[in-house]
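Entry 14: structure prediction run for DUF2207 domain-containing protein. Input pasted below.
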Amino acid sequence: MKRKIIPYALAILLVGLIPAQVYAIDFGISEVQIDAQLNADGTADVTEQFTYEFDDDFNGITRSLIEKKGTAIDNFSAAENGKPLKVEMEDGVYQIHREGEDGETIQIELTYEISNAVEKFEDGAQFYWAFFDESNESEYGDLAIAVTPPAPAENTEALGYEEAYGTERITDDGTALFELGYVPEGENANVRAIFEPELFPDAETLSGTVRDDMAQDRKNLENEAAAFAKNQQTARNVGIPAIAIGGILLLIGTLALWFRAYKRKRQIRNYPYEFFVPKASMSIPALLYFTNSVFLSPNSISAAILELMRKGNIRQLSEDHFELVHRKTDHDHEAVLIELLFDQIGDGREFKLSGVEKFTKNEDNHAAYNEAIAEWNKGVSQEVKAKGFYEKHPVLRWTAGILSAAFIGLAIYSGIYELFPWMAASIVLAMAAFGIAISYSPITFEGHEIRHNWRQLKAAMQNLPANQWDRLKTDEKQRAYAYLLGSDPKTAERKAMAFTSAESAADDSSFVMNPVFMTAIFVSAGSTTTASASGGSAGSGAGVGGGGGGSGAF
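Run finished. Output tokens:
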């Protein structure tokens, strides 16, 4: 009976904290045929045929076999088309060596012997075994298990458990067949077959009976199946409408929020535009963070240096050489950058770009450099946050959070009763509602206006006529060029000569003469420091008596 649902699989889909199993080799097992030939002494000779389809080059396959308590597995061997293959045991897993290439399909035959496989009681001899268990990390496309008695049997009984429930049938000669078909990974399946005890004269007879025990198991499983079917119908009647209604409400709400944001953006975009430099509402690094990307690139450091030059905190002595004028800053992140450049890299009063390169080439300094840049980034984000450009909607976000929790409950409920399409829909809806709950903070009208104006400026500067640039005030030129350098370094490089030639080299607040060179230094520093920062085993067995196993490849 396919009632089991793996709870952690749902958790993986919902929170994404645990990565799914990733194989080193990409393969599929399309067909598995297992034949257990029982012998008169109670042993079993097992033959397994696995059909593997590979999408990568490979070295072989694996098979884990976990012994049931009181039994032993011996004489394991492997062959392909009658040709023996090398077998090694490592960490409780058999490794069958057979190299091959991408796109190849192979059929491997495994054979082994199970001692004490049959338990002989007064009214019957049973084979009760798990050929795989929840530790199995491979799905089987089509699985069939045959349990054959030593001689034709007339009073065979068979019962499958979990994945094998309802798959059993008895052939004319008394063989018990379990035709499971597709079996997902991580599932249990025990097979049980009872034959006449006279067929096993050489096996030890245990006291007691076994057929009544199987009959009771069958009755219990049938009762559970009936109860499950009833509860499943209830889940259909209750869960499906709840998921559908909740999904419709979430969709309507999401569309309403999207339309509100779209209307606000469209209103601003319809403004007639004429080139101008917006007023200084934030520092240049903060503008880059808010209007361009929250991941500040090394180009942003060059823009921040130009900003400090514009404000008069530092002065450029030559292309490579800078002097600290004063430490009084408007923002904490500016003080952090001054400390990194002049105190850690420089001598407290001056620093050179060549010193940045020398400092970051020393691996002992990488941690300090990365920590300072991280602190600078944090300060920039805090400046943006303090501006209040994001609206707060606590009631709406709490509502979305409650709705997400409700969808999680519906996903678990529908999953337990195997309504898997509706479970998947609930998971998607839960993730959507959770996304709104944690991230819905729409930008204010003022924030959209600032974004629009600076992005328009960047676009206009790509082909800006020299006469329009010349009409700008010095402060406007410095802010505009620093923003362009931080957000679009390619355009800044192309415009560097034209935009900086108008500035007086004697002016202490003038642009650096070669900002592209400066940017290259910090790009290199960022790359250097970032680079620095930067088979299986068998389980205990979840099958009957601790048995089980699984399949894989390497």
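Notes: Residues 404 and 433 are 5 Å apart (CA to CA). Will compare against the previous run tomorrow.
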